[in-house]
Amino acid sequence: MSDTLLSAQDVSKDFAFGRSLLDVVKGAPIKAVHALNGVSLDVKRGETLGIVGESGCGKSTLARCLVRLHDCDGGRVVYDGTDIATLSGADRRAFNTKVQMIFQDPYSSLNPRMTVRQILSEALRVHNMRPKVEIDARIAELLDLVRLPQDAADRLPHAFSGGQRQRIGIARALAVEPEVLVADELVSALDVSVQAQVVNLLLELQDRLSLTVVFVAHDLRLVRHISHRVAVMYLGKVVEVAPTETLFKAPKHPYTQALLAAAPEVDPTRRTRRVAAKGELPSPINLPSGCLFHTRCPHAFDRCVSDVPQLTPRRPGHVAACHLPDPELP
Amino acid sequence: MTVMSVSRLRRLPRAFVFGAAILIASVIVATFPSAFAPYDPLAMDYVNLLAPPSAAHPFGTDNFGRDVLSRVIHAYTIDMQIALFATLFPFIFGTIVGAIVGYVGGVTESIFGRVVDAVITFPFLVLVIAIVSVLGPGLINMYIAIGVVGWVFYARIIAAEVKVQKRLDYADAGRAMGYTHARIVFRHLLPNAITPAVVYWMTDMALAILLGSSLGYLGLGAQPPAAEWGVQIADGKNFMATAWWISVFPGFAIVLTGLGFSLLGDGLAEILRGRK
Amino acid sequence: MTEPILSVRNLTATFGQGASALRAVNEVSFDVMPGEVLGLVGESGSGKSVTLRSLLRLLPVGGHVGGSVSWHGKDIVRMTDAELRAVRGGQISMIFQEPMTALNPVLPVRVQIEENLRAHTQLDRKGRNARAKELMDLVGIPDSARRLDEFPHQFSGGMRQRVMIAIALASDPKLLLADEPTTALDVTIQDQILNLILDLRDELAMSVVLVTHDLGVVAATCDRMAVMYAGRIVEEGDVTQVFAQPRHAYTRGLLGSIPQAGTERSMLLSIDGTPPGLAAIPQGCAFNPRCDFATDICRRTRPHLTGDGHRAACHNSDAVIAAGSPVKKALSHV
Amino acid sequence: QERGGVMTYGRYADSMFLDPVLNDANVDIWILSNMYDTLLLPTDDGQSVQAGLATDWNVSDDGLTVTLTMRDGIMFSDGTPITTEDVIWSLDRARNPDNGIWNFLLAAVSEVTAPDDKTIEIKLAQPDPAILPALSVFNAAIMPKAAFEAMPGETDLEKATAFAEKPVGSGPFVFDSWERGSTLKLVKNEHYWADGADGQKLPYLDGVTFEVIPDDATRILRVQSGELDGAELIPFARVKELQDDPNINMELFPSTRVADIIINVRPELDGEPNPLSDVKVRQAMNYAANKDAIIQVVTFGVGTPTSSFMSSTTPLHTGDGPVFPYDLEKAKQLMSESGYPDGFTASILTLAGNQDELGIATALQQMWSQIGITLEIQQVDNATRTEQYRNGTFDMRAGAWTNDIADPNQITSYFAYSPTIDALHSGWKSEEVDKLFEESQSELDTDKRAEQYARIQEVFNQEGPTVLLYETPYPVALQDNVKGFNQIPLGNNIFRETYLEKE
Amino acid sequence: MSMTAFLGRRLLQLVPTLIFILIVVFVLVRLLPGDPASAVLGDRALDADVERINRELGLDRSLPVQFVAFVKQVFTGNLGNSISMKIPVTQLIADRLPITMLLTFMAAVIAVVMAVPLAFVAALRRDRLEDSAIRGAFQVGLSMPVFYVGLILLTVFGAKLRWFPVGGYGDGFLDHLYHLFLPAVTLALSLSAILMRNLRSAIIGVVDAEYVTFARAKGLRANLILFRHILRNALISTLALFGLSIGTLLGGAVITETVFAVPGAGRLMVDSIYGRDYPVVQGLTIALAVLVSVTFLLTDILQAWLDPRVTK
Ligand SMILES: Nc1ncnc2c1ncn2[C@@H]1O[C@H](COP(=O)(O)OP(=O)(O)OP(=O)(O)O)[C@@H](O)[C@H]1O
Ligand SMILES: Nc1ncnc2c1ncn2[C@@H]1O[C@H](COP(=O)(O)OP(=O)(O)OP(=O)(O)O)[C@@H](O)[C@H]1O
Ligand SMILES: [Mg+2]
Ligand SMILES: [Mg+2]
Ligand code: NI
């Protein structure tokens, strides 16, 4: 299980601000949020790839680029050997069925005016997944798959709790029988107890349907729990990728280290009062030069300000983008 | 009515129930005016001019000797029509345009913004008067004139709401599912974006009746001999001191109907807000 | 043993009137000791925020507070408006989860700090200005003089939270009520803010009631914790004790739901079902339908909070203790 | 009579252009004579002329020369004397066919000269029996040539525009100030020539202030609240009420105003045969129209049925009693004899917002439905109506007429004489009427002219393109203390002998 | 974005709007049936006179030629002469637009003065008797035709009680204010009803906002919370609505001015439409459009001042 199914190759994405006529007249420079700045990442068939990072670092944007909700401004996203930007018409729809996305917000990701049955049958119908007569049966099957009672079909989303809604979202994605699921903060809006239910469901489905999963989250514990490999993002860049155990035990990038240190441990006996990372995320509009993390990095030296570090191999399957070969854990 | 629906009715906001009751009654009267009106609204009685309210003519008679009550009742037909038709086209057209503008955004939105500016910059009543003058007076032309201007307001509301809805995940979910833009706009976004427009619609219907009566006052609205409240009030203007009943009763009808619409609108807003 | 500075007894909060009234908080009792950090945890809707707000009678229109909250010998629930105003923001301050919505978007930060100073201190204009700047420095906002005249939307999330803390600290409160102050923040920022609160607690010798749903935050910051479920406290005790030996099945479930290092890609110990709505709280122990330990008695009678120091409201405490702490297990695994 | 005081008078609309020659409408015409004097003045009954700036006048026997003697010592309000040069210039300007729309009144004039500085001689190309009244019409007003020509501008229109901003004339009052749309103030002309019956100098008033109050009800309220001394065009509906008001003197001044329905009688309209071209149909419509009821409903009894197409106050009017007394049976009879026994549908244009016209149309709608005619009322604004009228594309329209000259020739040329405007743009034509009218235009024998007019009226009344309805007076509400105000049948508001009685 | 840039953008946006209005009104007036000459001259004019006068007015030229001439005129600040009154349109506008502006301004002030306090009472006593009474009263105000309300006010406060003059405009500024009071009230009724409704629900929306809770948690006095925290935020959305209503308000002035005999621009506009006085209609439309746009700009500025987020 090492062949690449989906890959991002040097993907970049900017969100330009609206420019008024006046700006044009004044010749003001185009301002943009640099959400992704050259992200390269491979997703291997059957694996779960976790993507972590702080808010605004471009996790969602990357996820959206992977399913082509955004078209990337630079680089490309390749699925099964083809650049997805070239797909159109039937091919594009076929791609949509193969790579599906599930969303963060259980409240806004379902159309509040459609019953579960309408939501699911729309997906089945538009993509001709099943002949008309089999649609009801398939809906029953899907509900079963995500552990929802059968009588759920004819209810509107507001009749469900957050966890149940996320299951409906999963069912909708599964309706088109995808190979890849991109889950953006799938459980972060849920209560811990319900979070666990959904995580369990995802693990189980992945086994049963041999899905490839891209799991985007900011919760390190969760990512660690379900990912085979983890990519850490900072300011629109991947700064470190490694198999889960390696990453959590021996992080090579100072940012990863700070992130791990900042996450509170679930053990009251191991408290620290040391602040893990100083400062805040710089503005994605005016990015720092060189290493994006140098403004907050305890190890920063002059090269970090001038040179952009590349992802370099550290161990088998472990890459990190830091000028230091092995920054010490602080 | 089943027990359940009664109990559900009780849970509806009071404003909604009152408003709906007034309007349902109005619609019934508007549909079968002859069943309620004691006289032919057009029948003139030259010996009974300007008769004050009496048992025979509870609302009195006007300067043609016509029964005011019967005219108020028959006016329901026209005024409810005005409420509906003067607003229906703007509602539908504005909704469609607004949905597209809100969804597409960008240049379309800027252009639309200028159109909105132009329309709201132009005094509404003056524009309507000008358009009716071009087309000629009469209800249909009045509808057209109001429609030409009115759709913009709906489109603005819908565009703003669609823009909000567009940013919600379910819209993206639709795109991720590979649905067409048309399907996402009209099947998914619009049903969720339409509520403020519907609430505005209710207010607008009341305003349409009022506008209709203003135009009636200027002779540009409903054409005689048809009874219409605004025209009746205008007719009665010269008799405010001597025969107040000619204008006061149609005035009541306007206020009552307007109240119905805005109660319904308020109630609707409350229900829809509550659901969120 | 020192006296508690705040002592809450049978606190109830109801919304609405008559038959359709809902009890969001039900006979909640707890104490806050001087200088301690008390964590209030529970799932969404369990009544944490309402409890916290009831302490200062800050419920929205239609809410009603019962029971007693004694503060320096006076009962806040029965205070006059004038007395209450002196307590609010003066002796007890409060901060909220979403600083963007809790700060008035149309007023510059200076005004929002100043109005608090004006309400609770005798400082003159100049004094207030100086104090405002001092507060901004205290919570670690660089370039404070300039930033005082900015509006909330010009601050980042973390900075906003610092601003709110600065406002709350304006009049040297003795108790800080914090309603999920870090939930909206990133881990690195959360780490900064929590440390800031702890530092300030030490410096200013105040107590803190910290509402959160993140057991990690509790583990990292609190001295004692109370677990809420369906409007009631179901377990209360020293943080280390509770983590090491939960006595309520719900607490145990919560702890088990958190992924632990070393158990990668295994099934989590989840709690089935969802928390009940206020209108349909189950008979007996509110948790019984979701509980693995539930017995008949759980379905019939409501358990009382019992124990000394470490209290729990569970009929089957023993069974739960016997099952052990999921966290312990995880920890020993490493 | 008591002197002094300013009278405020409420009008329904403001004047537009205070030039006697280039103005277009009644809002100007009706007040111009207060500022501009004419050589002759209409008498109070509007039937003939009296001395104005000229004291004597004489028409030669061949009818080709009018000789007038100028009054002594007359001057314009700015104190400059009125010379024969001013008179010649004014009349030449008034009769110039390029100037305004009233020049036809003086169309017969071929030359104006002044043999000496007291005498004006007007030469006519052909005899004109209406030449004396024509000299009393507003457009023949005498204006100061020098002051006019000193105005900036190249063309006559430009000069007139500048002049009319602060006009100078020789009427009893002088222009003082004007806030358009609101108030027009006139003050007493100190140089006015006339004395009143009591021997005192006219006018008695220090000034007249016209206030524009378009809304009828508001205008009346202002009179009732005492803020106005008088107000014109009181709706008939309110006449009774004001007559009963002890503080208000509700005057009904005799007028030349007639109300009728104008019918398009062209044989085809829009490519369809036109039922209204059938004279029987028109007569049926006339009979079926219950004038008494209409007078009751629309004028609340104030009007009287017309006995001819011209008002009874017009010189040479004939007839008494309604031309077509209400007779439904006869109407039905006539309908069945016509080409349209089953009736038809026709439309009528009324002026939007005009309650009188609307009332007439509404009543007719009901009355004519009884002889099978379905009447569609179309309320349109004035310009739209005028266009349809002028193009002859209307079915029917409500109409009203007021004479501008104390002679029947104006109304007859518009109503009956087809070359002018196709007989009210109706397409009606009677060779006989046309011939009679042309003859009457230069007929100096009064009796003969009367006969000609009698015949014209007979033909027109019976077959003409109108439904004759009623004539109405001018309803003016005055405060009780207002005396000596007159609105003559031609509509002119005469303030020169008005005074405000003090208690 | 700075305030100047924000204003600059708004001003630039005005240009296409004005051009659009210019074209629409130019075409619209010419679509009206009838021509200026016959509209002015009325029934009595002879065909030859009508043709002559229309020719003198240059109306026999082709539309594009007329339009170009018109645009040229506009750019030289000359709006032509009125056809019926013969005087320059600019002079007419200068005489009469200020009156309408004053009337509308007074109406706006009165509407706000009526709406704001009552909206507060209604919102804070939500669903109680006071609320229902206030909303009911405004509803009646909203449902009454303007000409009717005007007449009633005139009869009661003018003719009967003699508190106010029965229409007219008066002399001198204070007298103007006095004369315009009743018409302004009439005009304000429907706007105040709309504002009241909007503000009421805005207040209801704000009362439970977290920052209000926070303000209460600071122990502030009720008044301070009400005015500084609740009102200001609630006003923001209402202000936008208010700006949008100015056009409607100006339109409503047409009837009000007729009923109250106020010599304003609204009446002039309608008279000119009826009189087919093309130059006046065109000139007045441009003037009104500029006026309304400036009002929008002002409300925008006010909004930017109330809500610092706007300029973002
Ligand atoms: N549609 C958009 N228009 C403009 N800017 C955007 C848009 N979407 C995202 N951004 C900006 O791009 C940057 C990356 O956003 P993104 O949502 O990908 O971050 P994220 O890592 O998913 O954060 P979070 O954890 O908060 O979800 C942010 O600065 C965000 O403000
Ligand atoms: N104004 C209100 N009216 C009616 N019910 C309310 C109101 N505010 C809160 N509630 C109810 O009270 C209960 C407790 O709410 P509370 O906000 O205290 O929960 P919480 O524990 O703080 O949850 P969260 O983690 O989501 O903040 C919930 O069921 C909620 O629906
Ligand atoms: Mg995201
Ligand atoms: Mg909460
Ligand atoms: Ni006055």
From TrEMBL, chain A:
Enumerate the GO terms in the molecular function aspect: ATP binding; ATP hydrolysis activity
- Topology in the lipid bilayer: Peripheral membrane protein
Where is the protein found, in the record's own terms? Cell inner membrane
Record GO cellular component, one term: plasma membrane
Q: Which CDD domains match?
A: ABC_NikE_OppD_transporters
Q: Biological process GO annotation list? A: peptide transport; transmembrane transport
Query: Keywords on this record?
Result: ATP-binding, Nucleotide-binding, Transport
- Ranges for the ABC transporter domain? 19-260
Q: Which family does it belong to?
A: Belongs to the ABC transporter superfamily.
Fetch the NCBIfam families from UniProt: oligo_HPY (TIGR01727)
Its protein name is Oligopeptide transport system ATP-binding protein
TrEMBL record, chain B:
* Residue spans crossing the bilayer: 12-36, 82-104, 111-134, 140-159, 197-222, 242-265
Question: What is the similarity comment for this entry?
Answer: Belongs to the binding-protein-dependent transport system permease family.
* GO process terms (BP): peptide transport; protein transport; transmembrane transport
Which InterPro entries does the UniProt record give?
A: BP-dependent_transpt_permease, MetI-like, MetI-like_sf
Q: What are the GO cellular component annotations?
A: plasma membrane
Instruction: Give the location in the cell.
Output: Cell membrane
**Which UniProt key words apply to this protein?**
Cell membrane, Membrane, Peptide transport, Protein transport, Transmembrane, Transmembrane helix, Transport
Indicate whether Transmembrane helix appears among the record's keywords: yes
Can you give the residue ranges of the ABC transmembrane type-1 domain?
76-265
The protein depicted here goes by the name Peptide/nickel transport system permease protein
Q: Which domain of life is it from?
A: Bacteria
Q: Which Gene3D superfamilies match?
A: MetI-like (1.10.3720.10)
**Which organism was this protein described from?**
Loktanella atrilutea
Signal sequence interval, chain numbering: none
Q: How is this protein situated with respect to the membrane? A: Multi-pass membrane protein
UniProtKB/TrEMBL annotation, chain C:
Q: Which SMART domains match?
A: AAA
The major lineage groups are: Bacteria, Pseudomonadati, Pseudomonadota, Alphaproteobacteria, Rhodobacterales
Annotated GO MF terms:
ATP binding; ATP hydrolysis activity
Q: Which CDD domains match?
A: ABC_NikE_OppD_transporters (cd03257)
UniProt KW Secreted keyword: no
**What is this protein's record name?**
Peptide/nickel transport system ATP-binding protein/oligopeptide transport system ATP-binding protein
Q: Where is the ABC transporter domain?
A: 6-255
Note the PANTHER family from the entry.
DIPEPTIDE TRANSPORT ATP-BINDING PROTEIN DPPD, OLIGOPEPTIDE TRANSPORT ATP-BINDING PROTEIN APPD
Q: How does it sit in the membrane?
A: Peripheral membrane protein
UniProt main location, coarse: membrane
Gene Ontology CC: one annotated term: plasma membrane
Q: Which GO terms describe its biological process?
A: peptide transport; transmembrane transport
TrEMBL record, chain E:
Q: What keywords sit in the KW lines?
A: Cell membrane, Membrane, Transmembrane, Transmembrane helix, Transport
UniProt xrefs under Gene3D superfamilies: MetI-like
Domain ABC transmembrane type-1: from-to ranges: 97-303
InterPro entries tied to this protein: BPD_transp_1_N, MetI-like, MetI-like_sf
Record's bilayer topology term: Multi-pass membrane protein
> Per the record, what is one GO cellular component?
plasma membrane
The protein here is known as Peptide/nickel transport system permease protein
Species per Swiss-Prot/TrEMBL record: Loktanella atrilutea
